[in-house]
């Protein structure tokens, strides 16, 4: 099991590094969209969607992603292959799609904010929303689509900020794991995820504060705003993890899938990203950091 986990981690880190640092940005976007397909598939299985409900789930969640893919393809490859001579779309419709995306991505980020602030807590409290046959059709649009689109948007605007957020999510997870394993006593949500402890949360926060101080040394973050950022990332990461655990507990399953040997599913590894990236995008846009 440990060998499989290490091998899978090396492969995933290699793909991420290659597309993030070395290749044209379209390859990173293709990687994000491909992973998004796995995430939506796993979420549909957790929610036990079938038939017409499953079809609507995929249509609602993938329509904005398809539009983004078309815009990306035409902007990157349209001129390269001189498609403008053959397609009215390239010159005329691409600006319309770009305008649509400039509006829809902040809208979906705000939709995600509403979901995580109001809908998810009510679902955990009353266990009614994610089990509702009508409402769970929208879950791909609430959980996965905003995260994917905001990741790609931040990557284009400022990939350094995206890298910092990703590293902080990982540090929160790693710090929480080791401190929780060593010192964990006080359970945060015993009935949902018994492994999550207050001591683990503090360990994750401490890991990110140390990271923030290192960034401050290089003039990237002010101390006050950096600590606030560390708190937000750590808390949101834990929140996403807890909510996915809640959905899996409701579905009576341990892992979202077995796609990643030794790790479970993509959603098991990226659940912390689902609230963190869209909400931070919304806040960074609102306060003009992006």
Give the low-confidence spans.
78-89
Tally the structural domains. 1
What is the count of DSSP helices, taking H or I runs of 4+ residues?
A: 9
Mean of all residue-level pLDDT scores: 88
Q: What are the secondary-structure elements, in order, as H or E? A: HHHHHEEHHHH
Count of extended strands: 2
Distance from N terminus to C terminus (CA atoms, Å) equals 41 Å
What general outline do the C-alpha atoms trace? Answer: globular
Global structural class: mainly alpha
Strand content: under 5%
State Rg: 19 Å
Characterize this entry briefly.
With 290 residues, the protein is mainly α.
Keywords:
single chain; 3% strand
Secondary structure elements and pairings:
Elements: H1 2-22, H2 25-46, H3 51-77, H4 88-126, H5 139-183, E1 187-189, E2 193-197, H6 198-217, H7 223-251, H8 266-270, H9 273-286
Antiparallel strand pairs: 1-2
Give an account of the 3D structure:
The protein is an all-alpha fold and 290 residues long. It is 77% helix and 3% strand. It contains 9 helices and 2 strands; from the N terminus they run αααααββαααα. It has a two-stranded antiparallel sheet with strand order 1-2. The longest helix has 45 residues, at 139-183. The termini are far apart.
